[in-house]
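Moderator note: this is an archived Q&A kept for reference. The question asked for a predicted structure of one protein chain; the sequence and the answer are reproduced below.
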Amino acid sequence: MQRIIPAILTADPAELREGLKILKGHANWVHVDIMDGKFVPNSSVNLFELGEASQIFNIEIHLMVESPEKYLEDCKSIGAKRVIFHLEAAENPAGVLQKMEEHGFQKEVGLNPSTPVSKLAPYVAQLDAVLVMSVNPGFQQQEFMPEVLSKISELRKLKQDITIGLDGGINEQTVTQAFEAGVDYACAGSAVMKSSDPMAALKHLEEIIS
């Protein structure tokens, strides 16, 4: 089923809590960006600021960090449903995927705009999902890169039944392009959470793709 997943990127624990409060009762899934200031220049709230959010939402943790395997135990402790790490950030992607399997996560890899789909080929059998980045990771309100949409059909050729997400620059102008290209879900960050009425903005995006 095609869906919009609201995304929260913040270094402010109060902003995270407010965002979760706003989304309660309106979203089944929430995408939370975790940044270490190394893999990407910015840093974010830490995982434990999520508290008991996993009792309300399906939490998808997007690890924009070096050595993602070091975060998996904490992802487990806060009840993450799906974890995304970047292929570019892992020295041993197969090992990270194995640890994710042991923790019972849905296993997803993020792919930067400049990284070709072919880099995923050795790991695709272990993957449940791929998050195609349509901006460079780590910053909000970047311009959508339509050229990455060709990766979606390439991914389907590698693994027909893989779940494909798209993250970056999703708004009312770009969301149709994303779903027409064949993604299963798209993360909407600033277009929803930075709007004056987040729930109206989320509903509007959902209506566009319905």
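Archived answer notes: The CA atoms of residues 61 and 79 lie 10 Å apart.
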